[in-house]
Structures are given as structure tokens and as C-alpha cells.
Design goal:
about 240 residues, alpha/beta, 5-stranded mixed beta sheet, 6 helices, elongated
């Protein structure tokens, strides 16, 4: 009974919806570029619909009363809409030369498809206490084997304009030297910025035995080894 109500296009639409949902879910977990995959593999839509038509004809070849193709109008409309969008992007890219690459398309529509990463370090001689201010994602505190207070930090962000992002990411983390030193991020410039994502900042602090690490103004994630546990100041 179910096979008699089968309309060509319904299975294809279902497969496309499932595949799109899986891709979008994966993109939230591992930051896969969904648009890039869709622009590359859009002909699979035609393959799915063609296989469904052949499957329908194979199953119905001995059924004279149901041998005529029956289409699901809503599904075909949905698939046609996806095809028009995909072919439109392809035609604009290939024939007009308006976009030399997909990166140009992403930049035009403000899609953050590129990653910018920098790392730096600072050695603080004569510092007895390092204060970490909020805005850093993760602090790792380790014992300094050479007896010097050292800070290593990295910053990562996503962007649709790599040149612009490189200017934004420079100097995001600042280390203020002194007997009481400060480690502070400069993240106010990222508020409501449409060209770059919120920066992800990770720091590793190598603590000498006589130095304190003040995390009373820090609310991020902390990792430390057992040696430096008593040197960490926290108000939580």
C-alpha cells in the first residue's frame, strides 16, 4: 500500500534534508565549512533524483496501472530551488569572473571561513606576582624549571578578511611588567565586529617557586600541576 502512494522526489528531498542537517551539526562541532561542501558536491542532488526515477521505473516496470511516473510536487519544487541556487553560484563564478575563488564569495557574503593564529611569549624578570585579568579562555600553570617567570600565549580567530584580522589580532594579549605584573587581553575591539569572530586566547605560565599567580579576577578554565598549586591565588 505504501509503495502505491510513492511519489518521485520525496526520497531525494528526505536524503538531502538529512545530509544537510548532518553537515550543519558537524560544522558546529568541528567547524567544517558547510557552504564549501555544498558548492562542491551540489550535483549529488541530481544523482539522488535520477536514482530515484530509475528505482521507480524498475519497481513499476511490470505494473501497467502504475507504470507512469508520479512526482511529489513539493519535493521537486524544493530540489529545483536548491539547484537554481547552486547552479547560479557556479555560473556567476565560472562565466563572469566576478569571483576568482570561493574565498572571494565568502568575503563578499561575510562568511568567516579562514583561521588566523598567532603566538608570542614574554619573560618577566623580577616579578613576584602575576595577575591574570578576565577575558582569557584557558590558563595552564606549570613549574618553571629554569627559575624564570615566563608567559606563552596564543590567539585564534575566524575571519572573512584575513588581512584585516591580522591587524586586529596583533597585540590582543598584553603583558605589563613590574614587581606586580599583569596579563590582560584587549578584547573590547571585538564587540559587534562582523569581520572577525571572538578571539580564543590560551596562555601557559611557567612559575618560579617564589612567584604567585593571582587568578582572583579570572573566570576562565584553569589547569595546573601539583607543584604550583600553593602559588595560585583564587577567590571562588
Amino acid at each position: 500500500m505504501m509503495m502505491k502512494r510513492w511519489r518521485v522526489g520525496s526520497i531525494s528531498m528526505g536524503l538531502i534534508l538529512v545530509a544537510s542537517g548532518i553537515l550543519m551539526l558537524i560544522s558546529l562541532i568541528v567547524r567544517v565549512n558547510v557552504l564549501d561542501i555544498m558548492l562542491t558536491f551540489w550535483p549529488i542532488i541530481l544523482i539522488c533524483l535520477g536514482i530515484e526515477i530509475l528505482l521507480y521505473l524498475f519497481i513499476r516496470k511490470n505494473d501497467d496501472t502504475n507504470g507512469k511516473l508520479r512526482y511529489d510536487a513539493l519535493s521537486i519544487l524544493f530540489i529545483s530551488f536548491l539547484l537554481i541556487i547552486s547552479i547560479g553560484f557556479y555560473a556567476v563564478t565560472y562565466f563572469t569572473g566576478l569571483f576568482e575563488s570561493r574565498e572571494d564569495i565568502y568575503a563578499t557574503f561575510g562568511i568567516m571561513n579562514e583561521s588566523v593564529y598567532i603566538e608570542d611569549s614574554a619573560t618577566l624578570n623580577g616579578t613576584r606576582e602575576l595577575v591574570v585579568l578576565d577575558g582569557i579562555n584557558k590558563i595552564t600553570a606549570l613549574s618553571a624549571v629554569d627559575g624564570e617567570l615566563r608567559v606563552e600565549y596564543s590567539t585564534t580567530l575566524r575571519t572573512c578578511d584575513k588581512t584585516y584580522a591580522e591587524t586586529m589580532i596583533d597585540g590582543v594579549v598584553r603583558v605589563e611588567h613590574g614587581e606586580r605584573a599583569y596579563l590582560r587581553p584587549d578584547i573590547t575591539k571585538f564587540y559587534n565586529n562582523q569581520k572577525v569572530s571572538w578571539p580564543i586566547i590560551n596562555c601557559v605560565v611557567y612559575l618560579p617557586p617564589a612567584t604567585k599567580l593571582d587568578l582572583s579576577q579570572y573566570r576562565g578554565f584553569l589547569e595546573y600541576d601539583g607543584i604550583v598549586k600553593e602559588q595560585i591565588i583564587q577567590n571562588r
